[in-house]
Write a structure and sequence with these properties.
Elements: H1 3-10, H2 18-21, H3 41-63, H4 74-90, H5 94-110, H6 115-123, H7 126-134, E1 147-154, E2 157-162, H8 163-189, H9 192-201, H10 206-236, H11 245-275, H12 292-314
Antiparallel strand pairs: 1-2
Helix pairs in contact: 3-10, 4-8, 4-12, 5-8, 6-8, 7-8, 9-10, 10-11
Length: 317
């Protein structure tokens, strides 16, 4: 499903305006010789902030849909997520992990999540983090074995990519992709406040929950401050913006200004919380009762995790 089609489908009274979720398709203007101009760092920063806000609004829209996972209690989903993540991390066969990944696709479909949005969250981060990390593991001096791609020779012995290294890298990439898919299912189908309340109910330290919650909330306040600084510079600049020494000095000054604003904001927020009766704990939205459907779903998830772990052991080492 394309983004415009998705926007049209999510536009309804009381929801986020469609124009705010629409993806901008315009490209940089062309120069007289036909080449497109490179976007300045100001433009890229403004566009990045806008995209982040759009993704958050889009996630809230997905969590409000009437899907299978959206109907479940956040605590149940969190426990199920931990069980499935543990089973995935203990699996030693790609086939077993692939079964879990297919299960995430089925659950995403049943929860009315767009496959493109989930796939982008998974497969845009996996090559950057997991792919780069496992690349050395494919080489013979890290993972000795049968060389399938010779890159150099050492004392007459061919060295390069080994079959055992490729198998190890594939296993790690499969684990990471499946784990990110499971986490994406939780975050896309559950409002962030519910996730924090579930963490608090399940025994996570209140300090950790408070820090994470406030960081998430005030991240967008600081993002707005950054956007204002760059918009002010763009409004004062005549002609094309250059990537010169003055631009680098502006970025450095912006970082310092943002740090000062963040420090002052923390003091003001703390004083405001104390004035409103804060004594070290935060009371969130009261969690509802866990129903029969939630218990059944949690049981199925735990049973699936045990089945994955047992099936992987049956396949052998």
């Amino acid at each position: 499903m394309t983004a415009p089609a998705l926007v049209r489908r999510t536009s309804s009274p009381g929801s986020t305006p469609a124009w705010l979720l629409a993806v901008e398709q315009h490209r940089p203007p062309c120069t007289p010789n036909g080449h497109r101009r490179r976007r300045s760092f100001v433009t890229r920063t403004l566009r990045g902030g806008t995209d982040l806000m759009r993704q958050v609004l889009f996630s809230d829209e997905l969590a409000a849909r009437s899907g299978v996972l959206q109907r479940l209690d956040a605590r149940v989903k969190l426990v199920s997520l931990v069980a499935l993540l543990l089973a995935t991390s203990l699996a030693h066969h790609v086939a077993t992990i692939a079964v879990v990944y297919v299960g995430t696709l089925v659950l995403g479909r049943a929860s009315r999540l767009p496959a493109g949005a989930v796939a982008r969250r998974v497969w845009l981060s996996v090559p950057v983090f997991a792919g780069v990390a496992v690349l050395p593991a494919t080489l013979s001096f890290v993972r000795p074995g049968d060389v399938v791609l010779t890159l150099w020779s050492w004392h007459g012995v061919p060295q390069g990519v080994t079959a055992q290294g490729l198998a190890t890298a594939l296993l790690l990439v499969a684990r990471v992709a499946t784990s990110i898919s499971l986490v994406a299912l939780l975050t896309l189908t559950t409002p962030w406040t519910r996730v924090l309340d579930a963490l608090r109910v399940l025994g996570v330290s209140r300090v950790v929950v408070l820090v994470v919650g406030m960081a998430y909330r005030y991240l967008f306040v600081l993002l707005g401050a950054v956007t204002d600084l760059f918009e002010a510079r763009a409004a004062r600049t005549i002609g094309a913006q250059r990537h010169d020494r003055a631009a680098r000095a502006f970025v450095g000054a912006t970082v310092g200004t943002l740090f000062g604003k963040a420090h002052r904001l923390t003091e003001e927020v703390h004083l405001a919380m104390v004035a409103r009766g804060y004594r070290g704990d935060v009371h969130g939205v009261r969690a509802g009762r866990v129903g029969a459907a939630d218990v059944l779903a949690c049981g199925l998830a735990v049973a699936a995790a045990v089945a994955v772990w047992g099936g992987d052991r049956l396949l052998g080492s």
